[in-house]
Protein 1
Amino acid sequence: MDKLLDKLPAFALPFVTRSLRGSRAKRYLVFSAVLTGMTMIIGLWIALGAGDFEREMRTSLDFETPMYERERDELTVLAMDAWQHRDYEESRAVLEREGLAGLAGHDTYTSTAGTALLTAAVALEKPAYGEQHRALQLQLRTLLERRAPELLEVRKEAYHAADEDYPGSEPYYDYDEAFSLSYGFYVGHDYFEWTDPEAVARMQTLVERDGIPEIEVYSSPLGLEHALGIAGMLAGFVLMAVGTVLAPILVAVQQAQERNENTLMPLTATALNPRELALGLSAGPIAVALIFVVPQLGVFGLGALAMGYVVPALGFLGVLTGASVLLTLGAQLVGDLVGTKRTPGIVGIALMVLAVATWSFGATLGLEAYEYDRDIAGLVALLPHAGMTGFYLTTWYGGGSSSGYFYLAALANAGGCLVAAHLVLSALSKRIAGRSGPLLTRGQAVAGALTFILLANLAMPLDAEIEMRQYIGLGILSVPFIVLLMARVPLGDTAPKLRSVPVMPLLGELGAWSAAQFILIPLVYVGLFSPELHWDLEVFHPVGLVWLTWSIAVTGLIAIRLASAPNKILSNVWLAFCAVTVVIAFVHAVLWGVGEFNDIDEVFAMAELSPVLGLLQAALAVWIPISLVRQLRSVLGGIR
Amino acid sequence: MRVELDNVGKTYDGDSWAVRELKLDIPSGSIFGLIGPNGAGKSTTLRMMATLMEPTEGTVELDGNKVADAPLEARRRIGFLGDGNPLYKQMTPAEYLRMFGQCFRMPRAELEQAIDDTLETFDLTAKRDTECGALSKGMRQRVLIARCLLHKPGLLILDEPADGLDPRGRNDLRRTLGRIQDMGVTIVISSHILRELDDLCDQVAIIQRGRLVVAGPIDQIIDSHEVSRFVYELRMLDEDGGAIERAQAVLARKRALIEETGESEGQPFVRIQVQGGEGLMAEILAELIGAGVKVVTCSRQRSRLEDVYDRISENQVN
C-alpha cells in the first residue's frame, strides 16, 4: 500500500493517506471485494436463475419475453419443475387421446391448448386472403374436427342478439364465454386477423404440431454474455450512485467539516498551494470512492463487451466522468461556503435530498427524451443525469435514442461540465486561499457564460424560431448567469461594511453576457446556418428592450445583493418580491418583442386590470432598482 | 532566521488599515513577543509574516529574502500555529504529524524519522497511537506545536498559543518554547497574557490599533519607562507590634506614596513610591532608623512588562 501511495502526486498524498490510515484501507478493500462479488453473483443469478423472481426480473428488465407470450408464440408449455412436467404430460396424453373435451383441469397446458384451438376457431370465422391462407384455414378446420369439434359451432354459441333495452345496439359474439359453456373451464382467445403475419405464423405452428402443445422444463433463455451484461448493468448503477451521489456528498461533508472545525487554516500554511489543497481535500474521499469504483468499472467494461455495445459504454463513462467531476467539486464548494454556518451532517442530508430530486428529474427527462420526444432531446445538454440515462440504456439494450441529437447534446453537456468544474475549482482555490476579491476573474466568467450559452442553445430544438431562441435562451441562462455574477462580487474576510463593490461594472458584465445570447447568437444562427430564416426585428421594439434591460439590471442587483452581504428575513422577502417583478417584466419584454403587445396602454400591462394597479406597477418599476441600490449602499462600505 | 518587516501595512477595503507602517527587526534565534489588545492587528501581522496574507504595502523578509517573491518556498521554512487551531480528533499524533509532513512534501524516510524525533522531543512518544481527542489540552497544544516544527523550520510563529491553557499547560508551553529556542529556532509569539511573555521573550513589540508603539529588548523597554518611578519595598522587624505605624508616621512627612502594606514570611513590609530618586530614599531610610523602625531590607522593585503595557495603554487612551 505504501508503495502505491508513494506514486500519488504530492497534493493528494496527505489526504489519501489520511483517508486510508490504519486499517481503513483493508476494510474498504474487503467491502469493495464483497460488493463486486455481489454484483457478479446477482448478475449471474438474475440472468441464469430459473425461479419466478429471477424470471420476473429478466422480464421487467426486457431481457426475456413474458412466459405467456413465449408459450403462445412457440406453442410450448413451460414446466417449472419435474412434477409440473409430469402433470402436463398427462394432460397432453388426454388431449391426444380424447381431444379438448377430455381436459377438465385448470393447468397451464390446458389453457394454452384451449386458447390456441379457440383462436383457430376464430380464425375460421375471419375472411382469409390468398391461396395460402385459405389452405391453412382448411387445415385448421380438419384439426378442430379431430381435437375440438365443439369449437366448429362456437360462432353459433357465441352469438348474442342486440339488447332490446338499448336501441341501436349491435348483435355481438362472445367466443370466450361460448368456450367456457362448452368445456366447463375458461380461456380467452388471442387476437387474430389474417393480415397479421405473427398471428398467422402461430396458426401454422398449431397445424404443424397437430394441435398438441410441446412441453419443456423452463430454463432461462439467457446465456453467459447476458449474465455479464446484467452484472455490468448493476455495476453501471453503482458507478452512477458513487460518481454522482456518494463521492460528491463525501467530499462536501469533509469540506464542511474542515470549515466547521477550522482545521483548514493550518493546511493553508503548508507547502501546498490553494489549488493543490482544493484538489487534495477532494482526493481523500475520492480515493475511498475509487476503491469501490475501480472493480465495478471492470465489471461494467466486461458487461459492455459481452453485450457488444462498447461505444455507448464509452459515451456513458464520458458523461459520467464530466458529471462526477463537476458535482464533486461543486459539492465541495457548497460544503466550503456553508460549512462555517451549518454542520457537516446538515450539509450531507441537504445534498442527498438534492441529489435524489435531481436524479428523479434527470432520469425522467432522459427517458422521455430518449424514447419518445425528439423536440426535447436537446434538453439533455442542461442536465448530465438525463444524458447518462440515455447512454446507460443504449449500453445494455442497443438501438439508441430516436434522435441522434440526444447523444450530441449529452456529450456537449459533459464538455460543459468539465469547463464548469474548472471554474468551480478556481473559485474553490480562491476561497481556500482566503484572499479578498471575486471568486472568478472576468475572463473566467466570460468563459463560463459562453459555455452556458452554447449549452442553452443546444437545449432548444434545431428548428426553433429565432425569437424563441432569444427569449427562452435568456430564461434558461438566468440561473447560471446569476451564479456567475455572484462569483464576480468581491468578497473577503472583512465585514461587508468595509467592502466596496463595483456594481455598475458588474451589471455591465451581466448585460454583455445577455447581449451575447440576445443579439450575437441570432446573428450567428442566421448568418452561418440558416440565412433563409426570417428574423422578426420586432424583438428590438424599444418598449420591449426597456423591459428586458430593466429585468436584467434588477436580476443583477438581486444577485449582487445576495452575494455581497448576509440578509435579514425582511430583506429576503423584499428580494423575493423583486424576483417576481423580474419575471413579470420579462414577460412584458417577450410580449412586446413578439408583437402581442403593441398599444401604449400595454406599457404597464397591469393597467389593463385597473388604473391603480398600472400606477403601482410604474411606481415599482422606478422604486425597485432604487431600493436595491440603497440597500447595497447601506450594507456595504461603498458601491461604484 | 532573521525576520524583518519594513513599513508593512494591510487594509482589507482600501480605506481602514488593520496594520500600518509596521517596522520590526527580529534577530535570529530569539523569542519575540507581539503584544496588543484584541483587534490591534497581531494576527494580521503574524499571518503576513507566515505568508498567508499579502501585505498591502511594505515587505516581509526572511534572512534578507522577500517572502512575496516565493511564498511557497518561504512557507517550508516557517512553522505557523494560528489562533484557535483545532486538531483532527480522530487522528493519532503520529498520523497527524505524518499528514502535515506530507503537506510539506517531506520524503518518506525523512518524515518517519522526523515523526519519531518530534514525538520524543515533545514527550509524546507514549501517546503516539492515542487519538488526539483523548489527549489533555496541554498535550494537544504540544501536538500542534510539534506539527509546526516537524519540517524543521527556522521560524516558528505562534498566535496566542497559551489561550485556554491552565497554569500547568502554560508552564508546559514555557518549557517547550525554551527547548525550541535551544534548537536555534526563531520564535514569534503573540499573547495578551503578558506575564507569559515577560520572562520568556528576549524582545517584544507592543502594537495598538495596527501601529507599533514600542519594540525592543524587554529590559530596555522597561528601563525606558522607568524614568522618575522609584518603588521600594521595606521589610522590618516588628518586636512590639507598632513597626508599620511608626514607619507610616515618618513617611507621611516625606514625598512618598504608600502603595501597599502587609506581611510576608512573618515580617511586615511597606511598598512605597518615592517622588525624588535614590537620594530621597536614603533620607527616608535614615529617618526611619532614627525613629526606631528596625529596617531589615530595602530593595528597589522593578516594573514588569505588564505595568509598562498598562501605562502605555493608558497614554494611548488618554
Note: The interface with chain B takes residues 2, 6, 10, 13-15, 17-18, 21-22, 261-263, 265-273, 434-436, 492-494, 498-500, 637 of chain A (CB under 8 Å).
Protein 2
Amino acid sequence: MLCQICKKNPATVHVQEIVNGEKRIMHFCAECAEKKSMLEPFLKGMTLAGLLQKISEMEKEGADEPGKPENPPPDSGEDTAQKTVCPDCSWSLEQLKKTGRMGCPSCYAVFLPYLRKELAGVHRGLHFCGRDPEREGGARKKTGQAPDSAARIRERIATLKKDMAESIRREEYELAADLRDQIGALERSLSEKERA
Amino acid sequence: MDSSDEIIRRILERPVSWLPLRPSPGMIVISCRIRLARNVGNYPFPLNAAPAVRGKVSRMFREALGRMKQSGEWDFLDMEPLDDFAVALLFERKLISREFRNRAAGRALAVSPDPHLSVMVNEEDHLRLQYCRPGGHLREVWRRISRFSNALESELPCAFLPGLGYATSCPTNLGTGLRASVMMHLPALTIQDRIKQVLTSLGAMGLTARGLYGEGSEILGNLYQISNQTTLGETEETVIGRLEETTSLIAEQESEARKFLMAERPAFLMNVCARAYAILKHSCLMGSQEALNLLSLLRLGVDCGLFPSVRIFDVNRMMLLVQPAHLIRLAGHDLSPEERGIFRATMLRKMLGNDAEPPPPAGSTGRNPES
C-alpha cells in the first residue's frame, strides 16, 4: 500500500480518525506522517480528551525521565509532579488531569509548564493577540475616559456604512436601521468635536 | 423583585434569538452567536469555588451591572430553585448550555433588555457573556458583545494574564475566551453526501461543527453550528473574519447544491421534500428529533419554491414548538412521552392545514375492523 500523501513510498503509519461518528483510516509513509504530525496540531486543533491524554502521557514519561516536562517548575522533583498544587487555591495537577480544568487564574502559572507544548498545539501558538482590557475598557479606570480621536470615529463610520449597505443587500432592515442610528450618533459626536 | 415565574414569562415573550422573526426564504445562515468567557478577579473558578464564593461573584456581577447605567434593567434568574420544566424551556431557547441545566448553587441567568444579550453566571467560568441573533452579521455581534464586555470590565476587573489573555477554567478557552458560531441549515449538501467533505475541511481552518444544542450534541434537522476552536495566537477579528469567510463559502456551496438539485434532479428533490411534507401532515405520532429532521426537508422544499402554500415563518415556529418543553407549554399541562408524540403530530397536522382527524387505530374504539 502506498502513502496517501506522496503516493510514492510504502505506507507504514496507519492513523484511525473518528469524525462525527464516521471512522476513517489513513495510510502514510514515515516521512509524510512526520510532516503531517508537525503541521496537524496547528491546523487541526485538538480535542480536550486528546489534550488530557497527552498530559497524562507526559506525566508518565516525566516519572521515567526526570525533567521531561519542557519547563518544569524549579522546585518540582522527579515524582512530586502529581503533588504539585496551586498555592492560591490548592488545585492539584491530579485534579487538573481528572477534570481538564484549572482551579483559579493563578493555576496557570503553576501548571502551564506541564502543558505548554500541548496547549500550543490546541491553539495557534501560545501568544495572546486579542483585545487587551488594559488598552480597552479596563484602561478607562486608570487613564480616564480618553475620547476617541476624530480619525478613529471616521474610520468607524466608514465600516458601519459598509455594514449598513451589506445589511440592506441582505434585506436585514431591522439591523440596517440600527446601524443607521449608530452612524447618526457617531456623526453627531464627530461634528461636535470639529466645532469644539 | 419579580418572582422567577414572572421573569421566565418575560423571557419567553422575547423573540427567539436563534430563530429569525422575519425569515427570508432561502436563508442558509440561520443565526450567529458569540460568547466570551470571563472570570472575576482572582477568585477560584466555579468548579473549585465554595457556594459562598460563587454567590459573592454573582453579587459582584450584579452590582457592576447596576453601575452600568447604559446597560438598562436586567432580569436576574437564580437557577437553583427552578424546576426541570423551566430549565428545559431555557435550554430549548438556547439561553443556557447543556452543562448549565445542572442547577448548582450560585448559578444564575442574567438577561439584558437587549433580547440578544445574556450572561450565564457560574457556568464553567464565572461569566459567560453571550450575544446571539438571527441571520449572519457576525461582525455586528462582535461589536455589540465587545462593547458590553468593555463596559463590564471597566466596572468589574476580570482575570487577565499578561501574554496569555483571559484566564478561563478550561485551557482550551484561554486567551480571548471567545467562541463564535454560525448556525447553518445545510440539507442539500447533506442529502448529496457532500457534507462530510465540508466538515473535514473545517479542521484545517481551526473550525469545528456541532449540533443544534452545542457541544456534544448530535446533528438534528441538518443544522450545523460552525465555530472556532482556537483562542490564542490570533486576534478576535482574525478568528471572526475567518469564520465569516468560511461560512459564506459553505453557504455558497449549499446554494449551488440546491440549484443543482432543482435543475438536474428535480424529481429526486421533490420526492425527498414532498415525502417529508406528507409525513408531517399526516402522522399520528411524532418524536421531536424526527420532526426536526422532517421540518428541515420541508424547509428545503419551501426554500426551493416547491410548496408555495407553506410559509417559512411557520416552519420556524414548528421548529421551536416541536421541542419537548415548548410542546408541553403549548399543551398547558404535563404530557407523557406518548401523549407528547400524539400532541406533536396533531399540532403539526393542524399547522400544515390538515384539520381532518386521523382515523382511530383499529381496535381502540371497540369497532370491529371486520364489520
Note: The first strand of chain A starts at residue 13 and ends at 19.
Protein 3
Amino acid sequence: MIQKTLTLRNQRGLHARAASKLVQCASAFQSQVWLTRQGRRVNAQSIMGVLLLAAPSGSELLMEVDGPDEEQAIAALVELVDNRFGEDQ
Amino acid sequence: MQLTDVLSADRIAVGLSVSSKKSLLEKAAELLASASDTADAREVFESLCQRERLGSTGLGHGVAIPHGRVSSQAGVSAAMIRLSTPIDFDAPDSEKVDLFFALSVPEQCSDLYLRLLAEMAERLGNADHRERLRSAVSGEEVLKLLAIDLSDSAG
C-alpha cells in the first residue's frame, strides 16, 4: 500500500472530464486506487465515485494505491494530476 | 444550491423517443434553453456537442450527464430526459443509455458546477435511487424523488 497527498492544480478541479481521465488512468492498473477528500473516501476506478468528491482547484486529495503494480500506478496518477490532466490552466 | 433549484417539471421529459445521440442532445438543448437566463437552444446544443466530442458523458449503468459551458449565458439550467428505448451513447461500460441529466452553465461557473455534478453522481450511482428515477412517470414524480436527501441512507 502506498499513500500520497496530491493537490489539484488545474483551474477547474475534478470536473467530469478530468474525473474520467483519472478513472481511465487508475483502471489501467491491477491495483486498487482510493481517493479521500474531507473524510469522504471513494473508489478512484469509478467515475461516479470520483465525481462525488466535488473537488475544486487547490483541493488536497489523499491517494491510496494497493496491489501488485502500485508503484507504477501511483507514478502515472501523480503525473496526470501534476500535468493538470493535460489542461492548459 | 441543489439540483432541484435548477430543474423544473417542464424541463423533465419522461418516456421520450429519439433515434440518435444527436437528436437526444437537440432535445436536451431545447429543454435547457427554456429556462430563464440561458442562451438559445442552438448555442446550448453546440456546447453539448462540443463536450461530447471530447469524450462521452456516459457514466455507465445506462446513465449520462451531457453538459456544456456557454459564454453568453448567466444562469444555470438543468434538464432530465428518460427515453422509452435506450440509445447508444459511447458509455464507458458500452451499455445503452436511457437516463440523462443535462446541465448548461456559464463559462466561469466552477464550484456550483462541481457540486451539481456530485449530486448527479450520487443520485445516479445509487442503484435503488436510479431505478426509482427510471420508473418515474411524470416530471412532478422525478422532482419529488430528487427532493429526497440521500446522504442519510447512503452513508
Note: Chain B touches chain A at residues 51, 54-55, 57, 59-60, 65, 67, 92, 110-111, 113-115, 117-118, 120-122, 124-125 (CB under 8 Å).
